Amino acid sequence: MNYPRTRLRRLRYNKNVRELFEDVSIAKSDLIQPVFLVEGKNIKKEIKSLSGQYQLSIDNALIFCKNLINEGINSIILFGVSSKKDDTGKISCSSKSIVPKAIKEIKKTFGDKLLVMADVCNCSYTNHGHCGTIVDNDVHNDLTLETLSMQALTLAKAGADVLAPSDMMDGRVQSIRNKLDSSGFEKIPVFPYSVKYASAFYGPFRDAVGSGPKKGDRKSYQMSFKNSKEYFREVEQDLTEGADAIIIKPALAYLDVISKVSNNYNIPIIAYNVSGEYSMIKSSAEKGHINEMDIIMETMCSMKRAGANAIITYFAFEIAKNLNSNV
Ligand code: PBG
After folding, report:
1. Cα four-point dihedral sign 298, 277, 274, 219
2. How far is the CA of 205 from the centre of ligand 1 (A)?
3. How large is the angle between the packed helices 141-158 and 98-110, nearest 10 degrees?
4. Which of 7, 51, 59, 148 is surrounded by the most beta carbons within 10 Å?
């Protein structure tokens, strides 16, 4: 059957017909808002490279969480900005570290109204900016697992609902899972960044948390974007080790990866719409070159269409406000 009997535009003339058959949509419950935490009181410092995003002290983070909940965003992912740093990042394993302190306050205030995910990584806490313990000029995989699993346990004890290791060490899911299970936290899920590329799209984030490597790059642990199949092994490894859902990042330049993982594995997928993707849209919108909310929604739909079940995005709050104002 072909033209003129078939006219594909017949399904497009009427808005209600179009809407009947649209099968991709963005709900507030799909979105996870990143929150950057700093020590101190009454701090709300805009991050230059991430316009509209702030480093927040715990008191202001609580206000932001309340605003998020009021707009219908019920999930956040926390990142610590730490001025205290050491060789291995083990200061992150103390319950007095910024993220566990914030989690306690947030959970005390909002309970189950807010899903609190915590990024697990050492790069905000090491004086060299790498994601783990350096031995002979490289990040030592197995030594790093010790700080990561301790950090994860500290975050779980503080009340984190989900742990999201972003370090890309081999075996981290298993060692975090073992640590949690042997400490009575067998119900806490682990959502690793299973597929994480060594990407220039993280630039603004590294400014935000001061976590850029002082020397070298992350190519000995994050994946090369010149490999087109390696991600299958990363996903398989994390599933075998007990991942409950997986995170893929960046998102927009990697929609092929999201789509293939979604077609090949029965596991929930979270796309991380990273800092560089956010700031490209922001800067262009600030110059008046694009319609910001239209572009945001189009890119959100592209991630859902590719197979993402949920999205971590700095736009979460803005999207929610927009959806609410259009009701
Ligand atoms: C920590 C971490 C990074 C991001 C999330 N967790 C940065 C990195 O690996 O350098 C990037 C997030 C973003 O760009 O929005 N390892």
Report:
1. positive
2. 6
3. 30
4. 148
**How does pLDDT run along the chain (327 residues), one tens digit per residue?**
799 999 999 999 999 999 999 999 999 999 999 999 999 999 999 999 999 999 999 999 999 999 999 999 999 999 999 999 999 999 999 999 999 999 999 999 999 999 999 999 999 999 999 999 999 999 999 999 999 999 999 999 999 999 999 999 999 999 999 999 999 999 999 999 999 999 999 999 988 888 888 888 999 999 999 999 999 999 999 999 999 999 999 999 999 999 999 999 999 999 999 999 999 999 999 999 999 999 999 999 999 999 999 999 999 999 999 999 987
Could you tell me which residues are beta bridge partners of residue 119?
A: 164
Q: What is the enclosing helix (H) or strand (E) of 124? A: none
Dist. CA 206 → ligand 1 center (Å): 7
| Pocket mutation for ligand 1, best pick of 79, 126, 166, 218 (most atoms within 8 Å of C-beta) | 166
Among 217, 234, 226, smallest CA distance to 168 is for: 234
Ligand 1 surroundings by CB, under 6 angstroms: 119, 121, 123, 131, 166, 202, 205-206, 274-275
In the chain, where the domains are located: 27-325
Q: Out of 32, 77, 121, 282, give the residue to mutate to test ligand 1, the one with the largest number of ligand atoms within 8 Å of its CB.
A: 121
Q: Which residues contact 192 (CB under 8 A, 6 or more apart)?
A: 164, 165, 166, 172, 173, 238, 243, 246, 247
Length in residues, the chain: 327
Q: Give this prediction's pTM.
A: 0.97
> 285, 318 in Cβ contact below 8 A?
no
Separation of 30 CA from ligand 1 center, angstroms? Answer: 20
CATH code for residues 27-325: 3.20.20.70
